[in-house]
Amino acid sequence: AHKFIAERAKTKIENIVIQVGRTGALTPVAVLKPVNIGGVVVARATLHNQDEINRKDIRIGDVVVIQRAGDVIPQVLEVDLSVRANDSKVFIFPSNCPICDSKIEKTDDDVILRCSGGLSCDAQLKETLKHFVSKDAFDITGLGKKQIENFFLEGRIRSFVDIFKLEENEKNSQNPLKNKQGWGEKSIENLFFAINQKREISLEKFIYAIGIRHVGETTAKMIASHFKSYNNFKEKMLLMVKEKNQDYEDFVAIDGIGEKMAKAIIDYFSDERNLKMFLDLESELKIQDAQIKNIDSKFTNKSIIFTGGLEKMTRMEAKKRAEDLGMKVVGSVSKKTDFVVAGSDAGSKLKKAKELGLKILQEDEFLQMLSDF
What we know:
By secondary structure, the chain is α/β, with parallel strands linked by helices. The protein has helices at residues 50-56, 122-132, 145-154, 160-164, 166-170, 185-196, 203-209, 217-227, 230-242, 246-252, 258-270, 272-280, 315-324, 348-356, 363-372, and strands at 8-20, 26-37, 40-46, 63-69, 73-79, 104-105, 114-115, 200-202, 286-288, 303-307, 328-329, 339-342, 359-362.
């Protein structure tokens, strides 16, 4: 299929603002003089990180070329230096978080600058709460990003447990939901019903939902399978925070964990505010033990990764089919990866797989593999 060159346009950078994400990552965003690109008015574009700004020498007041990458995400391609003002200044990142004023940190192996404030930073706390209710986590109908934003600003939800105490707190609220525009008796009833429906959750989804850095769905599933129950997970985490015992050595040895991820997990539970948010949920939730499937097939414990777009099934369906055969779905390519399923527009993961000489399957070959079993 022929790919047409994405549409481009020139406009001016009126400001550069810093956004703080769930893990404290600082992302610079260009505030643009609104410009129409392919029928869409673009007013903001991510600048990714400090290194990207330095590499392209992007400054406030510059005239830049904008492109919608994949006709979706606006990006700054280059600066028109011929019209740069003589008094323009190099953009300097702040040394303190623009939200909570905590110190900005950078590790040697990370190009990203991060706020060190953790959940004491309102930006990180708000994004963590959004992650907690997201589709792949608790998936609470009627409580999405917009509602979390509003409830956070109003002080209704400031921790995980506040979500499950929302109905109880509503009874004595000085500013009840029914007085808010857009909230009628039925919508309030539906919200409380949706929250109460999520008081029981699997251990793997719970671990993913609490928002530990580096812990995605696949890793959460591995951790749940290793610890098997919530109580065991909690007790071993608290022990590992105190000392690097045999439990820690066994944990690090799990395929797909390693020192970097283990440190992030231990750091999470070493933070008193994280720990309180975590423990406060005990009185509100029933967390199911991990369901360990004893699958005996020629694919058991084989690792597989999916990259690019699939046409005959969703990514979630493909992962489920692979797991039903006992395979481990991983998130990154390594020499230990057994199968790489490459769909349309597969990128860097496919390139790395080829460099490592891994077994690469097209979608039809993957489906044939499933049907042969």
